[in-house]
Design goal:
GO molecular function, one term (chains A, B): FMN binding
Cofactor (chains A, B): FMN
CATH topology of chain A: Pnp Oxidase, Chain A
Number of strands of chain A: 12
Structural class of chain A: alpha+beta
Oligomer: homodimer
InterPro entries (chains A, B): Flavin_Rdtase-like_dom (IPR002563), Flavoredoxin (IPR052174), Split_barrel_FMN-bd (IPR012349)
Distance between the termini of chain A: 25 Å
Keywords (chains A, B): Flavoprotein
Organism (chains A, B): Rhizobium daejeonense
Shape of chain A: globular
Chain lengths: 176, 176
């Protein structure tokens, strides 16, 4: 994993990929699958996400206020779905599913070696948690794997069906 | 446009497509391009989105508390980018760009005929607008074009580059 500019973090999240969210609480790392997230601000890069109170990760996220958003490509789609099909209450998902935790630089939650990008995040606002389970995150460090410049992400369309990235097109846009 | 079940609205938004957001204020319809949105709740279908105070649509959305999220496919990608490259302050975007407004059922903002799906929305919470420009929407009526069952959406990766949906894959998921 190599350093990735924070100012470009939105280019990873804005397209709506399914991501993995890691946490570490009481020494125990966990990972969940997540599609309900969005960019909120370019600088500092801020991300909103929904983590249900029913998810085992909820308490870890709320208490430690740290997490990693790890972005998988289609090659590990089966592991991504597997992470969504079980709970960290019952098992060590990293060991069971075959995901490799790596130490992060600024948060206790682990990076995931198999993901082409990892965003270290701190929870900066929980005011919408009670009402909507909405956490506001700030990306404090970003990593990517330069060996995989054009990863194909997956986008959940419901009930285990995912659109895989196809071709890229570029149009003359004034938008960053 | 045919009726589409509200309970499945998330299947349109969760994959992270670039969308068009329409409003109508003081009799004038407008449309903007938007990628910063996410599902918040299945039932009622709730969507969060960021609309900058610098966007001309901001006042219309905040004052009328109504909008339509229209979902385009790749065939009209140039129109989607064009809608993001200009402001409704200066022109009638529908006429200039060649988008056809259609009357909605429950909101004053128009549907867009060229989009394969349209979600009529009401703003239900502005408590995070001042802090983050974050609007909470509830989908009150959904439409889709049954003539286009497998539209390819586009996902913004920054500076006018978009990933176009490729193939679908289906895995054995417990997630809705």
């Amino acid at each position: 994993m190599k350093d990735f500019p924070l100012s470009k973090a939105y280019q990873l999240i804005e397209p709506g990929p399914v991501v993995l969210l890691t946490t570490r609480h009481d020494g125990k790392a966990n990972v969940m699958t997540m599609s309900w997230h969005m960019m909120m601000e370019f600088t500092p890069p801020r991300i909103a996400c929904i983590v249900s109170g029913a998810d085992y990760s909820f308490i870890a996220l709320a208490k430690t206020e740290e997490c990693v958003i790890a972005i998988p490509s289609v090659e590990i789609a089966e592991k991504v779905v597997a992470a969504g099909n079980c709970s960290g209450r019952d098992i060590d998902k990293f060991a069971e599913i075959g995901l490799t935790p790596l130490p992060a630089a600024k948060v206790s939650a682990p990076l995931i070696a198999e993901c082409f990008a990892n965003l270290e995040c701190k929870v900066v606002d929980q005011d919408f948690v009670e009402r909507y389970n909405l956490f506001v995150l700030e990306v404090v460090k970003a990593w990517h794997d330069p060996a995989r410049p054009s990863p194909k992400t997956i986008h959940h369309k419901g009930y285990g069906t995912f659109a895989v990235d196809g071709e890229d097109i570029t149009l003359d846009s004034k938008m960053p």
